[in-house]
Write a structure and sequence with these properties.
239 residues; mainly alpha; three-stranded antiparallel sheet; 11 helices; 10% strand; flat
C-alpha cells in the first residue's frame, strides 16, 4: 500500500511527476544536462500565449550568453580576420533564422507550450518562436549549470555552422519577396486554400502567386509551414 505523497494525491501527482520527468529527460537528451529544476526549463519552453510565466526573460539572458560564446569562439577560430568580417559572422550565427534551424534539429517544436490560438496559428513552427526558445533554453542552462556548460552546448549545436555561416540565411518568403522587387513585380500574395484533418492535427494548403509570373501551392502542418513550402516551390519554378 502506498502511504506516501503519491498515494495521497493520486493521479494528479503521478501526472505531475510524469510531466516533470518528461521535461527533465528531454533536456538531458537534448542539452546534455540533467536539470535540478525542470520547472525552469518548462518555463523556457512556454510561450506568452500560455500565461504570465513564459520564456521572454530567459530569452533575454540566453541571447547574451549565445552572443558572448559565439564572439569568443570566432575570435579564437579566425585570428587574422578584421572586426567587420567577424561581426558579419557573428550576426549570421546568432540570427533568428539560425537559432530556428538549431531548434528544428533539436525537436523544439514538439516541446513548445502554447496557448490554443497561437498553436492554431502555427506558432510551433514559427522562426521567431523557435529562435526565441533556443535562446531561452540557453538562458535556463546558464542559470542552472553556469557559463561553461551553456557554452559547451552552444559549441556542439553550432559546430557545423561556425566556419560556414558568414551571412544570415534568408527565409524562402524573404527570398521570394526580394525576387519580386528585383524584377519589378508586385509582392507575393499568400492564400489559405484548405484546412483538413482533425482539430488537433490539421493540414493546411496555401497558394502563393505573383501577378503575371506564376503560382505554386504546398501543404504543411501549420499555415506558416505551408506558406514557406509554397514559397520554396515558386522559387524553384523561377530558377
Amino acid at each position: 500500500m502506498d502511504l506516501g505523497l503519491g498515494g495521497a494525491l493520486g493521479a494528479d501527482w503521478r501526472n505531475f511527476l510524469n510531466m516533470t520527468n518528461g521535461v527533465a529527460d528531454w533536456v538531458e537528451r537534448t542539452l546534455g544536462h540533467r536539470p535540478k529544476d525542470p520547472a525552469l526549463f518548462e518555463r523556457a519552453l512556454t510561450h506568452s500565449s500560455r500565461g504570465e510565466d513564459h520564456y521572454e526573460r530567459l530569452e533575454f539572458l540566453g541571447d547574451r550568453v549565445l552572443g558572448l560564446t559565439i564572439a569568443s569562439w570566432l575570435y579564437e577560430l579566425f585570428p587574422d580576420e578584421p572586426e567587420g568580417k567577424l561581426s558579419r559572422r557573428l550576426n549570421a550565427l546568432v540570427s533568428g533564422e539560425t537559432c530556428a534551424e538549431v531548434a528544428r534539429e533539436l525537436g523544439v517544436g514538439d516541446r513548445v507550450i502554447l496557448g490554443k490560438q497561437a498553436r492554431d496559428d502555427g506558432a510551433a513552427d514559427s522562426d521567431n518562436v523557435l529562435g526565441d526558445i533556443t535562446e531561452s533554453l540557453i538562458g535556463a542552462l546558464y542559470l542552472e549549470a553556469g557559463l561553461e556548460t551553456a557554452s559547451a552546448f552552444i559549441r556542439r549545436a553550432w559546430d557545423e555552422r561556425v566556419d560556414t555561416h558568414d551571412s544570415a540565411p534568408k527565409h524562402p518568403k524573404s527570398r521570394l519577396q526580394e525576387w519580386a522587387a528585383a524584377n519589378d513585380r508586385k509582392a507575393p500574395v499568400y492564400q489559405l486554400t484548405s484546412r483538413t484533418g482533425p482539430h488537433h492535427a490539421p493540414t493546411f494548403v496555401v497558394e502563393v502567386s505573383i501577378k503575371g509570373v506564376g503560382e505554386a501551392s504546398a501543404e504543411g502542418l501549420s499555415k506558416q509551414e505551408a506558406e514557406t513550402e509554397a514559397a520554396k516551390a515558386l522559387l524553384e519554378q523561377l530558377k
